[in-house]
Amino acid sequence: MNNINRSRRNFLKTGGALALGGTLPISLVELAFAEASQNFTFAYISDAHIQHIKGSRFVRNWDRGLIRAVAETNLLTPKPDFVMFGGDLAQLGSPAELDHGAEIMSALSHKVHYVMGEHDYYLDLGVYWEKLFGPQYHSFDHKGVHFIVLNSIRTYDDWTYNRWPGNEQRMLEMAGLDNPNGSPFMVGEEQRKWLKADLAKIAKTTPIVVFSHSPLQKIYKGWNFWTEDAEQVQALLKPFKTVSVIYGHVHQIQYNQIGNISFNSVMATAWPWPYPASYAQAQHYLPKLTVPMNRADPFFERDATGWQFINVANGNVDLNFTLYNNTDRVVRFDKTKKHPADKDYQTENMRIDPQQHY
Ligand SMILES: [Fe+2]
Ligand SMILES: [Fe+2]
Predict the structure, then answer these.
(1) Per-residue pLDDT at 303
(2) Can you tell me the distance from the alpha carbon of 85 to that of 45, in angstroms, rounded to the nearest whole number?
(3) What pLDDT does residue 355 have?
(4) Which whole-number Å values give the CA distances from 341 to 11, 13, 274, 294, in the listed order?
(5) Cα(322) to centroid of ligand 1, in Å?
């Protein structure tokens, strides 16, 4: 069976299992999704890092990752209501990279919403990106769910406007994963004000889904898996019954729960970063996750790259990961434990508590 067929088959099985607790003939899956009128699906593609070499040449691997994700998304059944792109479409934010990425994405037969990544932003602070994809932050309602798109990768004005001799230098400094000259990401006061006003119009029982690029939680500052004003953003989301934050940037599978907010990352189409326990070289950098997790396979080069299909039912988010040449995974909201859980890679006995393990 080729990859596309295998991926579709796996998703279809998962979709059936979500609704009815068992496998279904493929032809019945759409009925399962139609069971609750508010249930629907959307797809998410992230972190393509389209990289210009020169002239008409781009890094082939990154192109192929995105082309493949687009092609597979177009084949999904049931058809997602829309597609999210999670940021880092480009590597160094140039018009050539953004244009090339937009051209590949234009093959999608869906409405696409875009999230800003730091690799898209720091060359011209999003000017060209906005021309192609629209505002850097906005919200929209879809079938009873309130969706919010934030630009979470801004930083201090002094660093942005005064620190560097030119825009290219600023972009390069922010593009480095562990560059000590980088600066912590943040949503910032302007967007927090906007978010507060946006949420004021929404009933507290409405399911909220927030899309950001960096995690709206503090995981690992050394690599900017971090949002400096995360607590302030979380405080704005706290009054709502069900909130899911879905983010890119980390190029790995992460899930967490803080109060009423579930956090799930999506994978990259470009390359994987190692998992938390493998980058815990220095004790003070250990991530503090309220839902400790086991690792999938940090030494497998294509682990945590690929695509995932996302199911939203009644505001909770289930992520179905299709991993290249690896075991597929599902991170699903566990209603008993009230947090997302990856049942295949985490049991009560297998948990690694990073605070004690190293
Ligand atoms: Fe990225
Ligand atoms: Fe990023």
Answers:
(1) 56
(2) 5
(3) 39
(4) 18, 19, 20, 11
(5) 18
Show me where the domains of the chain are located.
36-357
Helix boundaries (H) for the chain = 3-20, 29-34, 60-74, 95-105, 118-121, 127-133, 157, 167-175, 189-200, 230-237, 354-357
- Position 302 scores a pLDDT of 53
Please tell me the predicted confidence (pLDDT) of residue 347: 43
Which regions in the chain score pLDDT beneath 50?
Answer: 1-35, 277-288, 293-296, 298-299, 347-358
Distance 302 CA to ligand 1 centre (A): 15
* Centre of ligand 2 from the C-alpha of residue 314, in Å: 29
CA 228 to ligand 2 center in whole angstroms = 15
Compute, in angstroms, the gap from residue 176 CA to the centroid of ligand 2: 10
Helix, strand, coil percentages (3-state) for the chain, rounded to 5, are 30, 20, 45
Give the distance (Å) from ligand 2 centre to CA of residue 87.
Answer: 7
355 and 290 in contact (C-beta within 8 Å)? no
Query: Can you name the CATH fold of 36-357?
Result: Purple Acid Phosphatase; chain A, domain 2 (3.60.21)
C-beta separation of 312 from 209 below 8 A: yes
pLDDT tens digits, 44-84: 999 999 999 999 999 988 898 899 889 888 888 778 899 99
